[in-house]
Every structure is written in C-alpha cells, then in structure tokens.
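Progress note, project year one: complex with cytidine-5'-diphosphate.
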Amino acid sequence: MILPKIVIAIDGHSSCGKSTIAKALAVRFGYVFIDSGAMYRAVTLFALRNNLIANGKVDEQKLISLIPQINIEFRYNSEKQKSDTYLNWENVEDEIRQLPVSQNVSPVATIAEVRAAMVRLQQAMGKNKGIVMDGRDIGTVVFPEAELKLFVTASAEIRAQRRFDELTANGESVSYAEILQNVQERDRIDSTREASPLRKADDALILDNSNMTREEQMAWVTERVMERLG
Ligand code: CDP
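Model obtained:
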C-alpha cells in the first residue's frame, strides 16, 4: 500500500528537541527533514562575517540590501547521515551551532524581509509534501495547511541542561548559566517579536517533553502521524 505524503510542522521553544523529533520522523517515514532554524543561523553568520552586527545591534538596512547575495542550501552528508547547511557554497554546519551565532540569531530573525525570503525558500522545499520542518512559525506561517502540527515545549532549565550537555560533549567550554540565559533571552525575543512571533497554531497538538524519554516521545509522535495517514 502506498501511503499519501503529508506535511509535518514542528514548532516550539529553542532547545526543546524539535529537530531530534523531526529527524527521527523523516527517517521513519522517508520524508525530507528541513531545519528552518539553520537557515536563520546561516543568515546570522553571513551578517557576522560582513560586520553587520555590533554589540547585538544588526545593521538591518544593509543586511536587507544584501539578501540577494545570500545562498542557502542543504546537502546530504552520507557519512553523517544528515544534511549539512551551506552558505554561499561553503559548509557552515558546525559554525552556525556555535555561541556567537546563537547569541545573535534571534534579532536577525525579527527582520521581516529576512523572514519573507526564508519562508519563500521553505515553501518551495515543501511543495511536493513528504516533508518535516521544524522552527517557530512553520504551522502558523510557512505551512498553515500542514496535515500535522506539533508544538513542542519543556521547561527552560531542562532545555538549558540539554543544550549544555550537547555542547560540552562536543568539547566546547561553556557555562550552564550562560546557556540558560541564552535560552531565556531567545524565548523572550521569539515570543514577543512583531514578525511571526512564536505561537501555537490553533490546530497544533502540544507536546511537553520535560519528563519524557526519547522513546516515549517517538512512540507518541509516530502514533499521531499514523492517525493522519489514516
Ligand atoms: O535549535 P534551537 O531551537 O535552539 O534554535 P534553532 O531552531 O536553530 O533556531 C535558531 C533561532 O532562529 C531561533 O531562536 C529563532 O529566533 C529563529 N527561528 C525563527 O525565527 N523561525 C524559524 N522558523 C526558525 C528559527
């Protein structure tokens, strides 16, 4: 039996494991996984490299004027069995996860013109369905017609601890307090910005994974997808 393909939109706070869920679903159902946050991170790296951010302040007009010079792509890395993010044909997957980008991405993501350009790319990637995309505005703005929408959350302290464990496992020296502050600050900016603030779509299902194991979570989301596939 050939199952129909659907669009799965996963939104929620930073560091709550959205991409873990999205990646696992993509593997399970043979879908394309797109990490929309990586696209905002790549734009932020571009802005940093072009000295368009000073003390947390973004030169918005300059950045907007340079949007046509920003090329963002995902290329599958068969060794790592995941996609890497490319900025102007350079693999920037590792660099966009580091703290300088994390600390500046939320202000960049408030710029309406940047969002419009990213949303256009994201919608093109999803036109054939069979896609799982995670972000902040996927169920509300990018794919308002998505067949399955999840809104994922967990307490700020648990999210900071998970991010801390991930970064230290990669050998980065960071403090828990610094990470917690970054998580809380991003929550604040993401939820209060004017352009597409983070909010639950009316028809999204809430998944609070504060006290769930990965296996429990996976079983729950897989069941939700199966329901949608009939
Ligand atoms: O991995 P984490 O959840 O910490 O963040 P991310 O998904 O990599 O996204 C980085 C930042 O991009 C977020 O803090 C948001 O400010 C922004 N973002 C957004 O505005 N809209 C999206 N669809 C995805 C990310």
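The chain has one domain: 7-225.
The radius of gyration is 17 Å.
No further modelling is planned for this target in the current period.
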